[in-house]
Each structure stands twice: as C-alpha cells, then as structure tokens.
Amino acid sequence: MGDVSTPSVAPERFRDALALWASGVTVITADSPDGPQGMTAASFSSLSLDPPLVLVCIDHRAYSHDRLVAAPGFAVHVLGREQEDLSNRFARAGDEKFAPDDWSTGAFGAPVLPLGVARLTCAHHAALDGGDHTILVGRVTEIEIGDQPPLLYWDRGYRSVAG
C-alpha cells in the first residue's frame, strides 16, 4: 500500500493530463438477468499472455457496473473508425443501447456487435478493487479480427489513424 499521507494531484489536473493519452475505444457487453448490458470503455488493456488476460476498468457509478462485473463472461469490441455511433450509444446510461438488428448472442450470452478492429470473448477471471473503479479481468477464450482502422480517443475527441 502507498503512503496515504503523500498528497495526490487535483482530480481536474489528473483528468487533463490523462486526456492527452491516446487510446483505442472499446464497448464491453455482457448478459445479465436484466437483459443485455454494455458500456463504452477507454480504460482497456492487455494484462498477461499466459494465460491470455485483459482488463477493463469500470467506474462504480456506471449504470451497468454491477451487471457487467457479475457476468460469467463478456465481449470486448475494439471499435473501428466507422463505429463512432456505437461508442456514443454505449457511452450513455440506460438500457436502450441495443438496436434489435445490430447484435447477436455470443458465448456466455454476451451480446455481439458488428465487428470493427477486433472482438475478444472473455471468461470472467477476477474483479479487483481499483479505487473508484472495479478492475474487471477476463481470460480471452476467442478472438475475431476485422479489417478496419481503429477509432481513437484523444484530447476529449474521436480521432483516427492517418494513412
């Protein structure tokens, strides 16, 4: 554990600095007793090659937090440049995110959205405390790779790779 007497930076300064970190954009989906759940997440990363693990950080206040963390598995959709609409739709709270004709049911009952850059199917591996977030760790059981360039998020806006 760190020294709690050491002062932290101001939250606004922290957010401003992290906004300058370019990241890919993902949508995380899972099944729940309340129906399909999903949210846009930029805090996604690989964790381990052996076993193949990824992590996604979910704010405790997120509408789908409890249902995503409790699911036996989930899907990570790495969005392509043409999928900004999906990112925006899944960034809002509520259950009206899933259009009837743009998803199917995958492993663990997780909703599967159209393929962009990649899609990873994950079995729930662990849920760890991460301050005001839960670090959801998934063991990758399946991967599909698309042919789109990625959708990026940088300086509070969507970007794409030049070229």
Keywords:
163 residues, mainly beta, Pnp Oxidase, Chain A, seven-stranded antiparallel beta sheet, 3 helices, 12 strands
**What do we call the CATH homologous superfamily?**
Electron Transport, Fmn-binding Protein, Chain A
Total domains, how many?
1
Q: Uncertain spans, ≥5 residues at pLDDT below 50?
A: none
The rounded distance between the terminal residues' Cα atoms is 44 Å
How does this model look, in words?
The protein is mainly β. It has one domain: Pnp Oxidase, Chain A, CATH 2.30.110.10. 13% of the residues lie in helices and 42% in strands. The chain is built from three helices and twelve strands; from the N terminus they run H-E-E-E-E-E-H-E-H-E-E-E-E-E-E. It has helices at 11-18, 65-70, 84-91, and strands at 23-24, 26-30, 37-41, 44-48, 53-59, 73-78, 104-105, 111-112, 118-130, 133-145, 151-154, 157-160. The strands form three sheets. A seven-stranded antiparallel β-sheet has the order 3-2-6-9-10-5-4. Strand 7 and strand 8 form a beta hairpin. It is globular.
